[in-house]
Amino acid sequence: MTAVEERLYKRIKNGVGRAIADFNLIEEGDRIAVAVSGGKDSYTLLQMLEALRRRAPVKYELLALTIDSGYPGFRADIIAAHLQATGVPYHVEKTNHFEIITEKRRPGSSYCSICARLKRGVLYTLAQQFGCNKLALGHHLDDFIETLLLNQFYVGSLKAMAPRMLADNGATVVIRPLVYVEEQEIIPFAQQSGFPVVCCCCPVCGTADLQRQRMKKLLAELERENPSVKRSLLRALANVQPRHLLDRELQQVCAVP
Ligand SMILES: Nc1ncnc2c1ncn2[C@@H]1O[C@H](COP(=O)(O)OP(=O)(O)OP(=O)(O)O)[C@@H](O)[C@H]1O
Asked: The organism sits in which domain of life (predicted)?
């Protein structure tokens, strides 16, 4: 590793360590399922959690989980070979999601959201089946703030993502240890690490989610004027001033007598 590569590796690892500490993401005895899609983010997540595990005073175990949704051309074998090489135990689950979505999707409904919902359900089930109390997902800082903006611009709600939350199944704790890591750190890291990134091969791969693309573009424009705009938006999520919002339920909580 060159000095520059080493610095990037340490910066990402420190960011993950900080998130773990700030949000109590990992505790003694945890068995964590790491959702690995074959994309740069979840490969990075797995590498960081495994590097930290080897030195952590807290004992925890990892299991990598990959869902093969059945899209023709999806190279689950490439992911499996990589996971095998990392030494982390893993499981690849083949599903018939492609068939289900093709048959059941109503015209106009979002392909990505149905696909993500189906995958999430299987990930929760598998985590429980394999005795994992937590599920780690590869969402990073940009995902958090793009979601924050999307919800404000298009949904009318003030919410982003949770770094730690109890899943709908009431049993699995979902964690997002890359919350402090920017996508522009992950891209060169994935390249320098030689991760075998594979395409999900779904029919809308790379063309979907135009609103998210719009947010990315907007943030890139703003960043040219203010290079710390993304960090500022992330800080805003940790610095909520309920008295200066319009939510009437919150107003009752903070009501001035
Ligand atoms: N097929 C899959 N198998 C296992 N986990 C998945 C799969 N698809 C998505 N995930 C999990 O959900 C997270 C968010 O999914 P999304 O499709 O938004 O991926 P992404 O932002 O492109 O990230 P990545 O680079 O890891 O694919 C991923 O980082 C990963 O942890």
From this structure: Bacteria
Q: How far apart are CA 46 and CA 103, in angstroms?
A: 34
**Distance between the two ends of the chain, CA-based, in angstroms?**
61
According to DSSP, the residues that pair with 92 across neighbouring strands are: 66
Testing ligand 1's pocket by substitution, the residue of 41, 83, 122, 150 carrying the most ligand atoms inside 8 A of its CB is 41
How many Å apart are CA 165 and CA 56, to the nearest integer?
A: 23
ipTM of the modeled complex: 0.97
Pocket lining for ligand 1, CB < 6 angstroms? 35-37, 39-42, 65-67, 119, 137-139
Q: Quick: pLDDT tens for 145-199.
A: 999 999 999 999 999 999 999 999 899 999 999 999 999 999 999 999 999 999 9
Q: What is the pTM of this model?
A: 0.95
